[in-house]
Every structure is written in structure tokens, then in C-alpha cells.
Amino acid sequence: MKGKIHSFESLGAVDGPGIRFVIFMQGCALQCQYCQNRDTWDLHGGTEYSADEVLERILKYKNYIMPHRRRYH
Ligand code: SF4
Question: Which residue's CA is minimally distant from atom 2 of ligand 1?
């Protein structure tokens, strides 16, 4: 299976608590008025990746994003 991806953010820290690997998908027909990612709208843009290719990218960062011990309890 392949999907079109706009971009990757390897160490995202602004979309919730902690650090995460963020995948921005490409292609959106909704065109919300206050969209902050209008460059992802183009249905013909982006790059095709397989699930395995995406997983390979994510696993490069596993030491940073995998929970070790919860420090907040
Ligand atoms: S916010 Fe932007 S990317 Fe999200 S659904 Fe709306 S138009 Fe699409």
C-alpha cells in the first residue's frame, strides 16, 4: 500500500505532550477557511511512500520517541 506524503517532522514538539514523529499527508479537498497547511491541499503534489518506507524512517528515531519510563507520575 502506498500513500502520498507532503512531509515528515522527525521531532515534533508542538502537537501535544512529548516528542513525536509527525507525518503530513498530501491532498485535501476540504479547504477549511483557517487551514494552517494549505501547501498540503494539492491532490497532485507530495511523494508516494509505502508503509514500509515510512516505518523505516520512523524507526531511525525510535530512541527519541519510544517511552522509557514515565517521569510525570
Ligand atoms: S485543516 Fe486544512 S488539511 Fe485539515 S481538513 Fe481542513 S483544509 Fe484539510
Answer: 35
